[in-house]
Amino acid sequence: MKRLMLFLGLAGLLLSCSEQPHGVMSEAKMADVIYNLTLANNCLMMKGYMPQNDSLKKKNFEYVLHQHHLTVAEFDTSAMWYARHSDHYETVYGLVIVKLTKLQQDLNAGKYKDKVIVRTKNDTINLWHLPRDFQFPAKGVLKVKNQPHNKVAFRVEGNMVEKGDKLLMTFLMKINPADRATHQRMWIKVHYIPNVTDSLVLYTKNDGKWRKYTLSFPLSTTRKVNFVEGALLDYTKAKGKQEAVIDSLKFIRVSYPPPPAPQQMVKKHKPWYWPF
Question: What pTM value is reported for the model?
């Protein structure tokens, strides 16, 4: 009997060592989280954001964890456990590779092609898919000496707008006097087809006051848009630290109803014998 109990105890110990303990995500869920984090960070890079933009990385990280109903502590616990168990980590890594391979196959097959947007009269479309607020430096992030200034860059593809639309951006922004960047500005640049551009530049003040900014950009009624790009908190030269906050940012496309087609006047020809 004692030998049987000893055998069962050893078997239970070995089983517990091979499986994830309580509080550690399963291999499948861990793979899902890492896969989504990879996609989120790659989207930032595709949008032109700098790899050292820690504030946006933090927002991406928190958003992915929120989607999976996880806290930072829960994720850290699982990450540390998988770091100590290389065999389980290799399994997770393999699952992530399978997901990325499947995504690439779907992209090659045209599954995620841009869809043509069906528009109605007087409609609007949201063009902003990044966070609506930014703070540089971000709260809770260790400040580094000579840290580079962050810019909020954006890009909109031409299939999101039509001829004659108006781009409208509004936001609140405060730049403190401690911010040492010179000639700070925001700008929007529209690239038309073929190789024609138009731009709008607005300079800002670093007086520590909250200001509301509105950028209105009417598009050409005759040229097709290739893409639209722009940046907030752009500057000529950065002399020191950055102290800026952006809040309640909105960027929409406004479409007006097409003008009514002119009615053609039908000219009636009188017969030669008509007296009037």
Answer: 0.52
